[in-house]
Write a structure and sequence with these properties.
The protein is an alpha/beta fold. It is built from 19 helices and 14 strands. The chain binds calcium ion.
Length: 460
């Protein structure tokens, strides 16, 4: 570990002595959330500090209580900030419980049982996890558990980290210079890349990146699922070459001199869709006003987070022991769009940072869940054989039916207008339009089949 982590660790040992504490601390230092039975929720903070306001009797929530899961990466910031700054409470959600999840698999398991069974009602998700849970594709016994996507939490703020042994070998955003070195390994010890859950965001970012460089992710390299803390250990021992992750991991990889960053996801697809708030449909259907109250608190947090003057304070809050449990310094620079890529390149550009409410200089809504983005995730799932092709063929009717069931942008709009969000900030279309990737490939939501056809490397 770098000096910064050692010094912070030593400082914390003064407060929490003993071997149990040190084990907890080491896990925290590696960013490994504690094993959670769903009971690691934060308490206190701003959620209880401020009076209930902004709630007319018509909008009063049916319940003040909900349990939301999160993973300690910057994607979860709107949930934590809404809690800590009292924004949930402002709209009557006085008993929100945030529950740190040990892994994406745990989050999935916990939403399957729901808060009544000691799990969670919803929370932060990679895409298209809510759709896969709704379809029963990743649940136990293929049980269908309908979920609603209610808002996007963030864009950008993710990267692809590479082990130091690849320094100077052409492993960058454009992989042409490294292709032969990487593919030459496939019959001996293949280039190994990790994601944190299969067939969702981080897996897609790695796959897109290597495929754009002419490398087949299914046959030329080895892809595997590894918990975040394990990825660092594996990268240190040289058994793993790459992994994809959310901040603050990229910064830590570089500062710990374990590796460097080949790419930020912001370089691959500017203002790409990232992670989302989704809640069990049975909870939302039972508590429509509470759902909107929750959304209003999140909107307020997202607006607060997009004021760069608030971001050092956000870093201090998120880094706390209840949450990410790491030094605030590892969040501050990425939050300002400052990335030391670790290969001699540095980025200092606010438009490369994570955004929460609006897409930086593009100006489109980050928070609004565009259906066109769900469609990209479904299309990419078809590309790699995770979903059958019939989701996309014939005008993508099957994909659109699933998206119409899961994506509740209508609730987003109701919450936004009740809250008095300016009409200009409420999208009047469910499509963000044609998207363009760093390799020049375009995704037109009107014709996802054309996108699939335009790709050279694919499984479908
Ligand atoms: Ca992510």
């Amino acid at each position: 570990m770098s000096e910064i982590f050692n010094s912070i660790s030593r400082r914390k040992f003064i407060f929490i002595a003993g071997t149990t504490a040190s084990a907890t601390l080491l896990k925290g230092c590696l960013g490994n959330p504690p094993e959670s039975g769903g009971n690691t929720g934060a308490s206190g903070g701003g959620n209880t500090a401020q009076p209930v306001a902004n709630v007319g009797s018509e909008q009063a929530p049916e319940t003040p209580k909900i349990k939301l899961g999160y993973i300690p990466i910057v994607e979860s910031a709107p949930l934590i900030i809404a809690f800590e700054k009292g924004f949930f409470r402002e709209f009557g959600m006085t008993e929100v419980e945030l529950s740190k999840q040990a892994s994406w698999g745990s989050a999935r398991d916990n939403v399957e049982i729901g808060s009544s069974g000691g799990g969670i009602d919803g929370g932060q998700w990679q895409m298209p996890m809510p759709h896969l849970i709704t379809e029963g594709i990743i649940t136990k016994g293929n049980q269908k558990i309908p979920m609603y996507v209610l808002c996007q939490l963030n864009t950008q703020g993710n990267g692809i980290a590479i082990a130091s042994k690849w320094q100077g070998k052409g492993v960058t955003l454009q992989l042409a210079g490294a292709k032969s070195a990487i593919t030459a390994l496939k019959s001996s010890t293949p280039f190994t890349a990790a994601q944190t859950f299969p067939a969702v965001n981080q897996d897609f970012w790695i796959r897109y990146w290597v495929a754009a460089g002419g490398i087949n992710p299914d046959t030329d390299i080895k892809l595997l699922t590894v918990p975040a803390a394990q990825t660092v250990a594996n990268m240190k021992t040289g058994t793993m070459d790459a992994f994809s992750t959310g901040d603050p991991w990229p910064y830590r990889i570089v500062k710990d001199k374990i590796g460097f960053l080949a790419a930020l996801t912001a370089q691959m697809w500017k203002y790409h869709p990232e992670e989302y708030l989704a809640i069990r449909a049975d909870w939302v259907d039972k508590h429509p006003k509470a759902t909107k109250a929750l959304l209003k608190g999140i909107f307020k947090a997202q607006q607060w987070l997009d004021d760069f003057n608030n971001r050092n304070e956000a870093a201090e809050i998120l880094s706390g022991r209840n949450y990410f449990n790491l030094p605030a310094e590892v969040l501050k620079e990425p939050f300002q769009g400052q990335y030391d890529m670790g290969d001699g390149n540095k980025i200092n550009d606010k438009t490369m940072a994570a955004y929460y409410w609006k897409d930086g200089d593009k100006g489109t809504s980050t928070s609004y869940p565009y259906k066109s983005h769900d469609l990209w995730f479904i299309t990419e799932s078809v590309r790699w054989g995770f979903l059958p092709k019939d989701y996309i063929t014939g005008g993508a009717a099957k994909a659109k039916a699933l998206i119409d069931k899961v994506n509740r942008e209508d609730i987003w709009k109701q919450a936004a207008s009740e809250m008095g969000i300016a009409a200009a900030d409420i999208p009047n279309t469910t499509s963000r339009g044609i998207e363009e990737f760093f390799d020049g490939i375009k995704f037109d939501p009107e014709n996802p089949e054309a996108y699939l056809n335009s790709l050279t490397i694919k499984k479908v």
